[in-house]
């Protein structure tokens, strides 16, 4: 499918673009500067070493990244409202995936701050009444996503008020090798999901790791097993634990 990424030139947008393009999707990677976006796409194509289909990754202006039905909003959370306000008309009718975390750094810790309406996703949904906002991907480690040669495994909590949009995002994520989408209820869950990223970042700083989220005690489909993704409810999940800590640098999830 076609996927747009607004603010796609940052670490998260780049990693996501690479993995989605490798999964066979056509990605329009957006920026406030289309030339910069195309430069980043050229770097990503090089990094993929010929593994991406021709035309699967295109650098565009943010407004052109709003053309597909599925659009990821990957700007820093502080810029999210102004960005969507500017693009509201172009975004009308789209499913908008909010990956933002409202965090501030305090020494060797990240702390969650509460944005208007309790979460970045709810804030964006309020600003875009004509869109279906889905919160997903907050715990993904951008650096690992972009490290194309390395195997990658992560659970992705996906929440939204619109069940169809939530399922569409689960279906998309399930096509990416290593990602396991987990439907996690309504957009009200985004506040806890986003805030937990502060814990994850703090763990990663303290352990010099790039850990991500893995839910124990549930059987959900993984990439390529043919079963519909995201069909279980997160209420059934008894335990969440942080996995993947290893020696190495970095602090982002
Ligand atoms: N980094 C991670 O590991 C990670 C993991 C999970 C979720 N996230 C979330 O994903 C989002 C992107 O993270 P990131 O680290 O990739 O962010 P970033 O590098 O700080 O920003 C991404 C892009 O957004 C654009 N941008 C910057 N400031 C902006 C503003 N004020 N208004 C509009 N656009 C602006 C820039 O692109 P142009 O200059 O090209 O327009 C920038 O390259 C954040 O909301 C973050 O919370 C990050």
Brief sketch in words of this structure:
The protein has seven helices and twelve strands.
List unreliable stretches of 5+ residues: 231-251
**Share in β-strands:** 15-25%
| Order of strands, widest sheet | 3-2-1-4-5-8-9-10
Tertiary shape:
globular
Helix/strand structural class: alpha/beta
How far apart the termini lie comes to 27 Å
Taking all Cα atoms into account, the compactness measure Rg is 17 Å
Count of helix runs: 7
Average pLDDT taken over every residue: 89
> Which ligands appear in the coordinates?
NADP nicotinamide-adenine-dinucleotide phosphate
**What string, H for helix and E for strand, traces the elements in order?**
EHEHEEHEEEHEHEHEHEE
Walkthrough of the structure:
The chain has 253 residues and is of the alpha/beta class. It contains 7 helices and 12 strands. The strands form 3 sheets. Strands 3-2-1-4-5-8-9-10 form an 8-stranded mixed sheet, sandwiched between helices. A two-stranded antiparallel ribbon has the order 6-7. Strand 1, helix 1 and strand 2 form a beta-alpha-beta unit. Helix 3 runs parallel beside helix 4. It is globular and about 40 Å long. The two termini are 27 Å apart. Bound molecules: NADP nicotinamide-adenine-dinucleotide phosphate. The site of NADP nicotinamide-adenine-dinucleotide phosphate has 27 residues, from helix 1 and helix 3.
